[in-house]
Amino acid sequence: MRSPARRAGRTGGALNFIGNLSSIATPIVIGFLVTDESFTPAFGYMPAITVAGILLSYAFLVGRVERVPERIVIDWELLITTCQLVTQRVRA
């Protein structure tokens, strides 16, 4: 999926903002979770955030998925010309 050309800057800025926000929030949240000197809650937090990110990305970013028809089209003339050029360069 691509962003429209006129929104490329806005899209990139939003993605960078979200990435930087998570890099600020994660150590703070883990610091609160590890108050009893056990990292068990932190080991539960990280997979939960990962799964939430996957689900939100799928819900908002992935559009309708359609099967691509399996068709192989061979341009024989282009293939023969390319082979001839390659053999000429190898012989030279």
Automatic annotation (TrEMBL):
Keyword line: Membrane, Transmembrane, Transmembrane helix
InterPro entries in the cross-refs: MFS_trans_sf
TM segment ranges: 12-33, 45-63
The name of this protein is: MFS transporter, ACS family, D-galactonate transporter
